[in-house]
Structure formats: C-alpha cells, structure tokens
From TrEMBL:
<keyword id="KW-0597">Phosphoprotein</keyword>
<dbReference type="InterPro" id="IPR003661">
    <property type="entry name" value="HisK_dim/P_dom"/>
</dbReference>
<protein>
    <recommendedName>
        <fullName>histidine kinase</fullName>
        <ecNumber>2.7.13.3</ecNumber>
    </recommendedName>
</protein>
<keyword id="KW-1133">Transmembrane helix</keyword>
<keyword id="KW-0808">Transferase</keyword>
<keyword id="KW-0732">Signal</keyword>
<dbReference type="InterPro" id="IPR005467">
    <property type="entry name" value="His_kinase_dom"/>
</dbReference>
<keyword id="KW-0418">Kinase</keyword>
<feature type="signal peptide">
    <location>
        <begin position="1"/>
        <end position="21"/>
    </location>
</feature>
<dbReference type="InterPro" id="IPR036097">
    <property type="entry name" value="HisK_dim/P_sf"/>
</dbReference>
<dbReference type="InterPro" id="IPR036890">
    <property type="entry name" value="HATPase_C_sf"/>
</dbReference>
<dbReference type="Pfam" id="PF00512">
    <property type="entry name" value="HisKA"/>
</dbReference>
<dbReference type="InterPro" id="IPR003594">
    <property type="entry name" value="HATPase_dom"/>
</dbReference>
<keyword id="KW-0812">Transmembrane</keyword>
<feature type="domain" description="Histidine kinase">
    <location>
        <begin position="254"/>
        <end position="473"/>
    </location>
</feature>
<dbReference type="GO" id="GO:0000155">
    <property type="term" value="F:phosphorelay sensor kinase activity"/>
</dbReference>
<feature type="transmembrane region" description="Helical">
    <location>
        <begin position="145"/>
        <end position="166"/>
    </location>
</feature>
Length: 473
C-alpha cells in the first residue's frame, strides 16, 4: 500500500514540475550515508533510523544570476531558499520518504524537481549473495546427512504453499480495500490534474491582463510626455505674450508722451502767432517749427499703427553713421518758439567739430527733445537753457550732450528717482503744463539701447544739468 502511494506521489510531482521546468537543469551529484557514498537499491536508498543522509546536487543555468534551492520532505517545505548545494537530512521516521529538491532563480524560472526515495528501517537487510560470490565459496563435500535435510526443505515448502493458499483467501477482503483506495487515489489525481489545468488557464488570463496593463501604462506615459511638452510650449507662449504685452504698453506710453511734446510745441507756436506782431522772418521760423513738430506727430502715429497691426513690440533701432550736430540743431529749432512763449532764453552752444556717431537719429532726437522740452517746461521766466556738446577722451572716446538750466534745481529725493518710470518730481511746470513722469525714463531707455550713459547734476536754487554720452566707434 505504501509503495503504491509513493508511486502516485512521484507521478503527480513529476507532472507538475515537468510543466514548470524552464531553463534550469538540476542534477544529483552524490548521496552519502554517514559520510560514505551509497548507491540506490531497487531505485531507493535504505538507511537506518539513526543514520544521516547527505545529498549533493547541482543546478546549471543558461541565465546569469544566483540559483536558489527549495527542499521538500514528504511534500512539506523545509527550506524555502538556500544557496548550498549539499543538504544533510536526519531524524527520519520509519517507513518510506520522498526528498524533493527544486532549483530556481531570481527571474522565477524553476528546474524539474529532483526526487530521491528514501526507506528508513530498523535493522540492516542482509543482501543476497550474487552467483559470483557463491562461486567463490568452497564447494561442500556431499555428506550423508544432506538427504534428510533436503526432505525437510521440501516438507517446509509444502507447508508454506498451504499457508499462502489459506492466507490468500483471507487477503481477498484487503485486496478489495486496496482497490477502492487505488480508485480514490486515481480520482484525486484526476481532480488535481483538472485543478492544475484551471490554474494554468487562470495564470494565462492574468498574463494577458498584465500585458494589456503594460501597454496601457506605456500609452499613458507617451500621452503624459506629450502633455508635458504642450504645457512647456504654452508656458513659453504665455511668457512671450506677457513680454510682448509689456513691451506694447511701454511703447504706447512712450509714443503718447512723445506726441505730447510736439503737440505742446504746436500750441506754443500758435499762441505766438496770435499774441505777438511778428515780422516775416519770425513767422517763417514759426511755420518751419510747426511743420517739424507735425512731422514728429505723424511719424509717431505711423509707428503705433504698424505695431498695432503686427501685434509686435517696438521696432528695433536702425543704426547709421550720423552727425550729432544735426540732431541738436533739429531739436533746437523745434523748441525755439516754445522757449519764446515761456520767456526762456534757449542757446545752442554745441561744438561744431563733432565726429559722426553710429546711432538711430530719430531715437536720439526723441531723447534730446525730452530733455530740452523738460528744461523749458520747468524753467522760470527770464532764465536760460543751454545745449552743449563735446568729445570726452578716455579709455573710450565719447560724445557728450548736456542740457543745462539755471532754474529751481532738484532735491536729493528727486535726484534718486529722476529716471524711474512714472516718477513725478516735486517741481511743477511753470506754465501749468501736465507731467506724466515718463520723459526722463524714456531718455534713459533710449540711451541704454545705444550702450550709452545718462545722468543728472543739480543743486537747489542753482539749476540742473541733464546729460548723456554715446560711444564713438
């Protein structure tokens, strides 16, 4: 009965492990009982209850990585994960036992199970001698007492046969019981095989689901990358739009401010025409100034239209070799009538021997006009405004342009914030003109774009000097 159970257990284990074996090849190297190598007897190893049995095994893998071993005794897991290739078993109970060894690696591959049948007995079984061993014994001499012995043996065999026949009848019932147990084992084996098939089917479905999930994860990752790229592009576009918006606002502020200067000049010229009797030359000068101021308004209006149409920031500067003397002369002519209307004396004391400078003439004229217009706007009647220019020698040659007045001057607080955007100084225009706080900021912005420098020197009740310098290339 035990032999039949053992056979079925080996068969089931073989079926299961054969289906799971992959790339690992597990081999039995040797079996030692009490440190002596033994060979199986009738496909099993026989040991005494007091003996220890050492099993030496080895797994070979085509894959790299460590190989681990699971040890089972009678289908019970005794060691789930070991690296040693020799394992010693002790304290077996009497009867038949199965030692099962399975190799596996970190990737989940398993070897075919190595099954070692072991039978534990109380006393050693004396093995029958082989014909060769018998041949080595000395032949007995035929003695007279051998005939009675043979007769006794024959009688004993007859008694044994009679005993077996009687015993066979009594064993009929046991045979039927064994047959029923065998049928039950067959049914259990069939059920186990069906459960194994179902488990394989479940595992296959799980593998398919895992594969689908992996594909979904990859798709989501790709989508996420695209979303991140779109987010970055939108952030860049937003930053650029914000920059363009700020540039457009600054441009409009500059344009509106600069339109105000020629508009104020035109108003002054018209007041002169209405208030004074002027000769033909003076009238001609005023008309020329009116035309120049009108041209400035038209140019600024055209720039605003272009920027609005293109939704772009202010056009880049157009640098050309140009004479600073011509810029100063143009600004002086535009503001002459305005100075007369304010009863301020305007003088052009610039040098007549200035080198040409690489500038945007319209922008430099815009910056100088702001300085001159401001000086006249804040100057008390009967005071002087002078425009000076000269070349400054040093590490770099520079053209310096100054606008000097002898008006009220600026306080320390006013000096600190003179060129800040929107800063309104404490002095008030003497003709009740409006002040936006943008004029000096525009000057600094233009001079900075020309890689120049702007500054102011002032003293209360003495006057102020606003100046800028441009590099001579």
């Amino acid at each position: 009965m035990k032999t039949l159970n053992l056979f079925l257990l080996i068969l089931i284990s073989f079926q299961i492990n054969y289906s799971q074996a992959e790339s690992l090849d597990l081999k039995l190297i040797s079996v030692k009982v009490n440190n002596e190598i033994v060979v199986p007897s009738q496909n099993k190893f026989q040991i005494l209850k007091s003996d220890s049995i050492a099993v030496h095994y080895k797994a070979v893998s085509k894959q790299k990585g460590e190989i681990f071993y699971r040890i089972f005794v009678d289908a019970k897991l005794t060691e789930p994960k070991i690296l040693d290739t020799i394992f010693v078993f002790r304290n077996f109970t009497l009867g038949a036992h199965i030692i099962k060894i399975v190799a596996y690696n970190e990737k989940g591959s398993e070897s075919q199970a190595l099954l070692i049948p072991v039978e534990v007995i109380e006393k050693p079984i004396v093995q029958e001698k082989t014909p060769e061993q018998l041949s080595e014994q000395k032949s007995f001499d035929f003695q007279p007492y051998i005939v009675p012995s043979l007769i006794g043996i024959v009688v004993l065999q007859i008694l044994i046969i009679i005993f077996i026949l009687v015993k066979k009848k009594s064993n009929g019932v046991k045979y039927n019981q064994n047959k029923e147990e065998l049928e039950e084992l067959k049914y259990s084996y069939k059920r186990a095989k069906e459960e194994l098939a179902k488990q394989h089917e479940v595992n296959e479905n799980l593998r398919k689901q895992i594969k689908e999930l992996d594909e979904n994860v990859k798709t989501l990752e790709k989508t996420n990358v695209k979303l991140v790229e779109q987010k970055e592009k939108l952030a860049e576009s937003k930053a650029r739009l914000e920059y363009l918006h700020s540039q457009k606002e600054e441009m409009f502020a500059i344009a509106i401010h600069d339109i105000k200067n020629p508009a104020s000049a035109i108003k002054g010229y018209i007041e002169l025409l209405n208030s004074y009797e002027l000769n033909a030359n003076e009238q001609q000068e005023i008309m020329e100034s009116l035309v120049a101021s009108s041209d400035d308004i038209v140019k600024l209006s055209q720039q605003m239209c272009v920027i609005i149409a293109k939704a772009m920031p202010e056009p880049k500067l157009k640098f050309v070799e140009y004479s600073i003397e011509q810029v100063i002369e143009s600004v002086y002519n535009q503001n002459t009538s305005y100075a007369k209307a304010k009863k301020v004396k305007l003088y052009n004391k610039s040098s007549i021997d200035l080198p040409k400078v690489k500038i945007d003439p319209e922008k430099i004229e815009e910056a100088l006009d702001n300085l001159v217009n401001n000086a006249i706007k804040y100057a008390p009647p009967e005071t002087i405004v002078e425009i000076k220019s000269y070349v400054k020698e040093g590490a770099k040659r520079m053209v310096v342009v100054e606008v000097k007045d002898n008006g009220y001057g600026l306080s320390e607080d006013d000096l600190k914030k003179s060129f800040q955007k929107g800063a309104v100084l404490s002095n008030k225009p003497t003709g009740l003109e409006q002040s936006s706080g943008l004029g000096l900021w525009i000057v600094k912005r233009i001079i900075d774009e020309h890689n120049g420098k702007v500054w102011v020197e002032s003293k209360l009740s003495v006057g102020s000097t606003f100046a800028f310098e441009l590099p001579i290339e």
